[in-house]
Write a structure and sequence with these properties.
Layout (H helix, E strand, L loop, with lengths): L1 H4 L6 H44 L2 H4 L9 H14 L7 E6 L4 E4 L12 H8 L4 E7 L5 E10 L5 E10 L1 H51 L14 H50 L5 H33 L7 E3 L1 H18 L3 E4 L8 E3 L1 H17 L6 E8 L3 E8 L29 H11 L3 E7 L3 E9 L12
Parallel strand pairs: 7-9
Antiparallel strand pairs: 1-2, 1-5, 3-4, 4-5, 6-8, 9-10, 10-12, 11-12
């Protein structure tokens, strides 16, 4: 209960107390009030019905006096009625004369002269000459009084009989009944508050722990976890937060590895450029051989830097959804030939065999030739990087009525099975010893998706890797292939 008393603005506990417990308590209060009135009406209605049944006897008892207004005869009959009345222990009778004076009582004691009789006055004015009043006497006793006026057939009042019943016993029964209802309601509210408090704690405590854990994760502590307390939605949320923390930790590691890798990738060509530039500057006399070699290194490393920067820019465009393609009908063989030509000299210099058996014809595709050439260069470059000297890189092109398939395979080191599912993720590198930023495959895969194609990788560690590129064939509206 103390925990429920302490809530902050907008807390779950406060909303539960206001929205759920508050509404329930209002319903309970309304129910108690309704039942209290129902019980009161039940007891009071029973008493009134009993009095009314007795007062109905007057019609028969005083029937012989309906034709005359003889007050002496009325008084005598009234005495006989009071003397023979069977319920004197339950109610008090007062016989009232035509001029409003009390002439007979069942108890023998006359009431206070100042005692008001609202029911008698109301009965005189009512059409049915009958009235009921519930209130307190001058003595403070709660009573119900019923008055019935007796008239002649001519409508002249010859007197009245007033029945008075004490309500003290009925009020005690009403009080006991209402108290029992209130007690039962308080017991119900107590159990609801305790069960609700337990339920709220089962939500609030884990949520607070998750909130604290989330703040620690936001601060860079990716090792922190949430204890799973329940196998429900809260438990699922705990699993999600723990999974998020592990993924953020992995992403942080990938980011750090990426920064380290890119820094190394940028430092290597910059070092070569700076070294050869200083060498060329410090040479005492012009040496064409040194100058040509230095310029070749500077140009080559500058192109390498440009490639790294372009790769980073492409990745940024993809992440922000800003990569635009210049789509046109293209010949894939022409772009593949150019990519192979650009890398053939490198393959020869590294004593690697680049085998390509060009087909006579393949159908055209719709694409951006520069981006597709970028994919070819990236895949072949990777094959060269991970293939040892004397290794073989094979390129095969096939086509059918729907797709053009290009397969690039090597007999290099292969990719371990645990790394293969994530090899196309951004920043991910299965082999940290080989140069590269770790985003080339991610960029290539995105380019293939933008061309409605696919890039799949199959690899066995120690045997080699096969990359399969699939491009949809360009077709007319009627579904026939388009010629080159």
């Amino acid at each position: 209960m103390k925990r429920l008393a302490k809530w902050r603005k907008g807390s779950i506990t406060k909303r539960w107390i206001v929205n759920t417990l508050g509404v329930f308590i209002l319903i309970i209060v309304a129910l108690i009030v309704s039942l209290s009135f129902a019980i009161r009406n039940f007891y009071y209605g029973g008493i009134q019905q009993t009095i009314s049944a007795r007062s109905n006897e007057l019609v028969n008892f005083f029937g012989t006096y309906y034709l005359s207004a003889d007050s002496d005869s009325f008084a005598q009959t009234a005495r006989s009625y009071v003397a023979a009345f069977p319920d004197k222990e339950l109610m008090e009778l007062l016989v009232i004369s035509a001029d409003g004076e009390i002439i007979i009582t069942s108890t023998g004691f006359f009431p206070d002269e100042n005692e008001a009789m609202p029911d008698y006055e109301s009965a005189l004015e009512s059409e049915d000459k009958y009235a009921v009043w519930t209130g307190k006497l001058n003595s403070g006793e709660s009573v119900m009084a019923v008055t019935r006026v007796i008239e002649t057939t001519g409508g002249e009042s010859i007197g009245a009989v007033r029945y008075i019943v004490s309500l003290e016993a009925a009020n005690r029964k009403i009080f006991v009944s209402v108290s029992a209802i209130i007690f039962a309601s308080l017991v119900i509210v107590y159990f609801i508050i305790n069960s609700g408090a337990y339920f709220i704690r089962s939500i609030v405590i884990p949520v607070r722990e998750m909130s604290e854990t989330a703040r620690r994760i936001a601060g860079g502590d990716f090792e922190t976890t949430v204890d799973k307390m329940y196998d429900d939605e809260i438990g699922d949320l705990s699993d999600s937060i723990n999974y998020m923390a592990s993924e953020l930790a992995a992403a942080e590691k990938l980011k750090n590895d990426f920064i380290s890798s890119v820094s190394h990738e940028l430092r290597t060509p910059l070092t070569a450029i700076k070294g050869w530039a200083e060498t060329m500057r410090d040479v005492d006399s012009y040496d064409p051989m040194i100058m040509n070699k230095g310029m070749s290194v500077i140009v080559g490393e500058s192109e390498r830097l440009t490639g790294i920067v372009e790769e980073l820019l492409d990745f940024s465009r993809i992440q922000e959804g800003r990569m635009q393609l210049m789509m046109d009908k293209i010949d894939l063989l022409a772009e593949l030939d150019e990519a192979i030509y650009m890398l053939r000299e490198r393959a020869l210099s590294e004593s690697k065999h680049l085998l390509y058996d060009e087909p006579d014809f393949i159908p055209p595709v719709m694409g951006d030739k520069n981006r597709i050439k970028q994919v070819f260069i990236n895949i072949i470059d990777n094959a060269l990087k991970y293939t040892p000297a004397s290794g073989v890189i094979g390129i095969q092109v096939t086509s059918d009525s729907d797709n053009v398939t290009i397969t690039i395979s090597d007999n290099g080191c292969g990719i371990p099975s645990e790394h293969l599912p994530r090899i196309k993720e951004k920043f991910y590198k299965a082999n940290q010893t080989i140069r590269g930023s770790g985003i080339g495959l991610a960029v290539a895969d995105e380019i293939m998706q933008l061309h409605n194609g696919s890039l799949t990788i199959e690899s066995t560690e120690g045997i080699g890797t096969t990359v399969t590129l699939v491009f949809p064939v360009l077709k007319d509206d009627d579904g026939t292939e388009v010629g080159i």
